[in-house]
Amino acid sequence: MSRLEVTEKIVATKVAKGLKWADVARKVGLSKEWTTAACLGQMTLTAEQAQVVGEIFGLTDAEQKWLMVVPYKGSLPTAVPSDPLIYRFHELVSVYGTTFKELIHEEFGDGIMSAIDFRMDLKREPHAAGDRVNIVMSGKFLPYKTY
Predict the structure, then answer these.
(1) What is the pTM of this model?
(2) pLDDT in tens, 11-55
(3) Judging by beta carbons within 10 Å of its beta carbon (0-12, 13-18, 19+), is residue 23 exposed, middle or buried?
(4) Among this protein's residues, is 94 annotated catalytic?
(5) Model pLDDT for residues 87-133, shown as the tens digit of each residue
(6) Number of domains, the chain
(7) Residue of 5, 8, 48, 91 with catalytic role
(8) What's 50's domain CATH number?
(9) Is CB count within 10 Å lower at the N or C end of the chain?
(10) Cβ–Cβ contacts within 10 Å for residue 137, how many?
(11) Selected catalytic residue, list 2, 82, 94, 114
């Protein structure tokens, strides 16, 4: 058994039961964004969180333990993603990455936006010309230190 097999079981059970990530997140007590990332193998759950997820998805005790193991971060199978939706994020960084960098450095100085001390909110934004995807990412600024 591996973490990938547990992730695949979670996704298969989600599909079979017709579950929504937002409903899973409410039961876990965390955001839909973080909970989804955890269920997809990118975050580490506590024993209590793993038990809730285990109950929802019918996981054994052994499978729940995999949810508490620190994962290998980064789940994309290739350097340039082939999935069209994920590729668009790659494209966003390719096109706007230098703009993100320039504006963050101008506003905050030399440093990075944390993906550890991080929040994300994703929601549908109704629009007459077609609904829009609204994603807000908020990461702590971490300045580089001199020594």
Answers:
(1) 0.82
(2) 999 999 999 999 999 999 999 999 999 999 999 999 999 999 999
(3) middle
(4) no
(5) 999 999 998 998 999 999 999 999 999 999 999 999 999 999 999 99
(6) 2
(7) 91
(8) 1.10.260.40
(9) C
(10) 12
(11) 114
